[in-house]
Specification:
By secondary structure, the protein is an alpha/beta fold. Helix 11 packs parallel to helix 13. It folds into two domains: 128 residues, Aspartate Aminotransferase, domain 1 (Alpha-Beta Complex), CATH 3.90.1150; 215 residues, Type I PLP-dependent aspartate aminotransferase-like (Major domain) (Aspartate Aminotransferase, domain 2). It has 13 helices and 13 strands. The structure holds pyridoxal-5'-phosphate. Pyridoxal-5'-phosphate binds next to helix 4. The site of pyridoxal-5'-phosphate (PLP) has 14 residues, from helix 4.
Length: 361
């Protein structure tokens, strides 16, 4: 089965990593968006308190978690209609299995963004369907094989934010064809130069979520990547179908993590504190990259600076590695991104200061 999947691209970065790690002041790894700051104390306390969990948890989530998700979606996404909700074991497993869980398969087409998180394509290949990369739906024409359209705003890796009018067009286009729109909104709460809009917002869906699902994650918002805590909100019928299949497949969020999610969703103070840390790191890195001659595109939201030196991405990866800095080559994210690198904001203040010093030396 793994032969049907793309090569795991991170192995290709090993030589640059070895060069960067040889820097006398050590490696600054800005290649992966993995949180480095502590898990907020109130979330750890909720996890610990729920650790006596001998019985099987509910795949649908505890009533407390379902309420917390629904309230958060209404508050943060501006969704006034009746939503289906469902916890997931982080969002990566959902991204990888969603086409399969929805019965998408051979002969079907799934649309993914031109430049995107690689797991969308993995999920389509696992299902045996065909991938089409497109940002503009007009280019697709009236293809009746399209069963699913992925959108991702704010985008990983580009940090691009899609306006409400664009989201509405995608939803209208998909509804006319009976396709499902899935909007990955893992970076929704990390808007800098623009305020990201959820596909669930009333200005997009008007409270009717037919054929629409949004995907959320607490990995970045609440530093919970290690807990594996994500959730869905959207079309109640689609979510009920996903729940039915996931129950059979044992895709269950552990009970202590469900309790931790309730605590995380009920608190915005830690979110604001974490945002402030990222905002400061973003500003320092942005200025240093510009001084070093980089151009930064999009990057209006999310945890990455989408940067270019106007050359092949691997040349830029090497240039940065010589300075002890590791970045992700744009080529990992799509064939049209070969002249950019993705620079993550997820490093400690100390490591970000080291990168800034090296970039501006
Ligand atoms: C766009 C996007 N979606 C989904 C994920 C998966 O996140 P998680 O599985 O931690 O929720 C990531 C992780 O970086 C991502 O960038």
């Amino acid at each position: 089965m793994s032969a049907a999947l793309p090569d795991f691209p991170w192995d290709l970065l090993e030589p640059a990593k070895a060069v960067a790690a040889a820097h006398p002041d050590g490696l600054v790894d800005l290649s992966i968006g993995t949180p480095v700051d502590p898990v907020p104390a109130l979330i750890r306390a909720a996890l610990a308190e729920a650790s006596d969990a001998p019985g099987y948890p509910l795949t649908a989530g505890t009533p407390a978690l379902r309420t917390a998700i629904a309230e958060w979606l209404a508050r943060t996404c501006g969704a006034s209609g009746k939503l289906g909700v469902l916890p997931t074991i982080g969002s990566k497993e959902l991204v990888a299995w969603l086409p399969t869980l929805l019965g998408v398969g051979p002969g079907d087409v799934v649309v993914i963004p031109q430049v995107c998180y690689p797991t969308y394509e993995v999920g389509v290949r696992l299902a045996g369907a065909e991938v089409v990369r497109a940002d503009s739906l007009t280019a697709l024409g009236p293809d009746p094989r399209v069963k699913l359209v992925w959108i991702n705003s704010p985008s990983n890796p580009t940090g691009r934010v899609l306006p409400a009018a664009h989201l509405r067009k995608v939803v209208d286009w998909a509804r006319e064809r009976g396709a499902v729109v899935v909007s990955d909104e893992c970076y929704l709460t990390l808007g800098w130069d623009e305020t990201p809009v959820s596909v669930l917002a009333d200005e997009v869906c008007g409270g009717d979520y037919t054929g629409v699902v949004s995907v959320h994650s607490l990995s970045k918002r609440s530093n919970l990547a290690g807990y594996r805590a994500g959730f869905l909100g959207g079309d109640p019928a689609l979510i009920a179908e996903l729940l039915a299949v996931r129950k059979h497949a044992g895709m269950i969020v552990p009970a202590p993590v469900q309790a931790a999610m309730v605590a995380a969703l009920g608190d915005e103070t830690h979110v604001a504190d974490q945002r402030a840390l990222y905002a400061a790191r973003r500003e320092s890195l942005r200025e240093a990259l510009l001084k070093a001659g980089f151009e930064i595109e999009h990057s209006a939201a999310g945890l990455y600076l989408w940067s270019t030196r106007g050359e092949d991405c691997w040349a830029t990866v090497d240039w940065l590695a010589q300075r002890g800095i590791l970045a992700a080559p744009g080529a990992f994210y799509g064939p049209s991104a070969a002249r950019h690198v993705r620079i993550a904001l997820t490093a400690t203040d100390e490591r970000v200061a080291a990168a800034v010093a090296r970039l501006t030396a």
